[in-house]
Write a structure and sequence with these properties.
CATH topology of the domain at 358-447: GMP Synthetase, Chain A, domain 3
Largest sheet: 13 strands, mixed
Number of helices: 14
Helix content: 25-40%
Structural class: alpha/beta
Number of strands: 21
Bound molecules: zinc ion
Shape: globular
Distance between the termini: 52 Å
Amino acid sequence: MLKARSGVTDVSWPAICEPVGASMLALQFQLQQSEYWSSEQLLEQQLAQLQLLLTHAVEQSPWYRQQAEFRLLANQNYPLSLQQFADLPRLTRSALQQNLKAITATSMPPAHGQRLELATSGSTGTPLLGWESELNHFFWGGCNLRDQLWHQRDLTQTFAAIRTNVEHQVLPDWGSAISASFETGPAITLNISTPVEQQLDWLMEHQPGYLLSHASNLQALAQLSLRKGLRLNRLRAAISFGERLPDPLRELCAAAWQVPLQDIYSAEEVGYIALQCPQDESNYHVMSEQLLVEVLNANGDPCKAGQSGKVVITSLHNFAMPLIRYEIGDFARVGAACRCGRGLPVFTEILGRARNMITLPNGHQHWPSFPADLWLSVAPIEQFQLEQTSRGQIIGHYVMAEPLNADQQQLLTDKLAQSLKFEANIVLEHHHKPLNKPGEKFEDFISRL
Ligand SMILES: [Zn+2]
């Protein structure tokens, strides 16, 4: 049961929330309407908000001011059309990093609050990703709360998060985005660089109701739970974010813990991009109230249902660092209308980054599949990663106590060649230590081409 948090003495129910909580509930009320709007209704409101963003960007950001296409649209006094928007130049990830200062707004409307730093996942020494306003952060919180409500999570349970940028801690609530308007149970956090064995001990000790982590970490935890025959008896759902979902993870969570997996598509620069539909686990719904998300084919035209293409994002409320038609580097597959009735656009698959695509000797590319059972069926490999170094060569890095023998090597390279459809050189390389640095995102396939 949801219990709103009252901020008024001697009023328990119905609750009168503190101002931030009240604003959060007011936002949810609107989101619960707009998620059922038609695409035309959504687009009309997005373009109106976009006009405000464009005007601000041209006034406050030297990067946009110097480009005639943006100046022209910022000054027009009739509604912005989708075609005009789609003709604007795009901003790549590397252009953002190289021109961060010029893109950052020199000032913001006071009501948008302070400027907050956006940091990459991973530890110290990583470059600054940019800025967001406090107001934008509030909208991110709105998506966080929406995810909890969509999946009808029991907020009184313990919420465990194993991720980067957190310490080993017990917190009184699920974070301000949730606890400003609802009573919640405690949250516990652990850094993802903790060895998996210790992570599982910690989970066994605390027996949380929910567990959030990166997909590859959940996979390792579920496998270890199965191997050791340990159950997380109070767990109701596993929640993944920040990485491409490995094929068998849903089945693995069901086998290890008898719980569903709920995936979140997000990125540090723009926050929540799409949330798994509460009625259909094969669909993600785009957060169109916060972002205008395009999926474009190689010609720059919008993809139709069933097609996959480049994800291009416009962040509608971040006036601290206007991101207009930002090529985040991910690919996604567009889906048809969802049976849940929500009008928010649908993705059926988040395909990950271009650097996670394999290139065959003939130049063709695809996202490779090599599920864990493929390499685990050969030997008790602890961690496995493929690195493409040229069109003709892939290196298979594996972590194991002892190197594979000649027969195992042959078997593994044969299985990989078949699964990857890669008929060239596959070399195996033995490692004793983990393949990713502590706290670093793990990518199972990296192309160096
Ligand atoms: Zn749906």
